[in-house]
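Work package 3, deliverable 3.1, input record:
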Amino acid sequence: MELGDRKMLARRLAVAFGKAVDVTPADGQPAHILLPSIRLPEPWKPSPTRALTVWEGWPGIRPQFVIDESVVGETGEPPRSNHQVYLLDQSWRGFSFNFAFSGDDPVRAVQLWLARFTAERS
Amino acid sequence: VTSWPRRVAQRLAAALRRSGQDAHDVVSAPATRTVDLRIASSLFDQVRAHVEDFRRGEEAGFLVCSVSRLDDRDILLAREWHPIPDSAIERRAHGSVLSWSAQFNSSVLQRAVDLDATPVLVHSHGSAAPRFSSDDRAKERALLGAFSRIVDPLPTGTLLLGRGDAAGSFWIGGRNDRLAFRRLVIVGPTIDSWDAVSARPDGHMPRQRLARQTVAIGPESDEKLGAAVVAIVGVSGGGSHVFQQLTHQGVGTLIPIDDQVLDETNLGRHVGAQAADIDQTLKTAIAKRLAAGVDPLIRVSEVNEQFPSARTIAAMKGADVVVACLDRFDAREAVNAFCRRHLIPLVDIGMSITSTSERLAKADGQVIVSLPGEPCLRCFFLTDALLEWEREHRPPGYDQNPDAAGDPQVVSMNGVLASEACNCVLDLITGYSGGERGARQWQYGGRSGQLERTDLPSRWPGCPACAQEGHGDAPAALG
């Protein structure tokens, strides 16, 4: 993704989620946008927390969405169907979560990922 | 050094405000951390070609390096080489001292800041046991004191190449008394270590248990193996073989990484396991016990977690070689990406057996050696299509499902691959093949018994792992 497109993406996400930082590792690679302070639905803690989004194949393909490994529910357990993901030299928590998505609204794409936390209230 | 670009000047001002001292304040204190510099051999060849060409006099340049930070040392990872062009050099302007334009310094520094990286000045006097001259020291004080405040908290420094050895002086936060240069590590078909003149290891006592191997592969092999650190990710079917052979080969420090306890089905292929270990003993503990039985002086730093936990990442950063013995393609992709970021050679083994009508139909395996500057696994083997197939047919957690059929395995076929992988490790550390091996793959047919070596395909220009080659630690923005 070109620098201009990445900047526009980060701006739109920043408006919706407070702050968004372009941490793409190299030109020509899919945009990596960090959301350093994203709010999760109750009862997931800590909230706000950080999430990383990777926009490979966007807008044809939904973004990859991973969150900080410390996020747990009321029982102290992480969300179900989670797995560790290595991105930018850190370990993140990814999930399997099916949702229908079409269109090119990046904010909507992240909101649909967040619905995963509403669907499983620990 | 004048006319700093705006972003660089802002950093310098902020650093000076933080520290409240000028660039010449030096307080005597012993160095508490060491510095290694790791570089791909292809890039190092470019550096030497420039700084060892004395036809016009002394030459120099800057390596732009990222950092891999360990508890006790910083490993600088060379990413780019910026030779000082002749047009920027002012020859004989200051006697014998090599001088160049402030604009060139500014451009290199700006590039380093843009990459969240740090510059390292490199030159050579063309002799062994190199020592910095008084002119070198004066230049260093003027330049690196300022540089180190701008790139703070990253270290910066200067490296003087010798003949198989090197000298280095490294600065952090305006001081050069906190970091001691330890070695330059050149990563190619053989891992070459140019130790600091002041930090050469004490004399190594040859190990009698390795006498026959030393006769076979050379008198220096014992010491090199003793100093080597090898991480093995996954110490089960293939990894337990690898671990066992590396203990016998004399590797000094082994890092087995695995979060599983031995189960009964592992006993058919897990080297070193005993019936009493079933449902009781961590696979890493079995590895540690095995090593102690061969030689109690082998250092084993086991990590009972699954890559990429924070502990596994921290443990693997200091490895000279990583051996991946994993079933899942996504896990192999992650280890491959890690090795690229940290410029660590990767030896990857994988075996796939399919059976039909109660007979073995196919048994295909491969060993792949991936080196910085050469194609990685993601370039040609771990393709988008393969990873997508796995996501669809074997999603994460598939292997944790008690109803999932276990993958077919044969201990002796795993052993063939593991033995060849250990030859690869042995060659990376000792160079016994004289350059005949290097970054290649060995394909194994378990039915036919054929082991065939092939060259690696070309690098993939869009490879996401290669795009992060030498980036080291996570970007500062991630915290």
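The interface with chain A takes residues 306-310, 313, 334, 337-338, 341, 395-397, 462, 464, 467-468, 471-475, 477-479 of chain B (CB under 8 Å).
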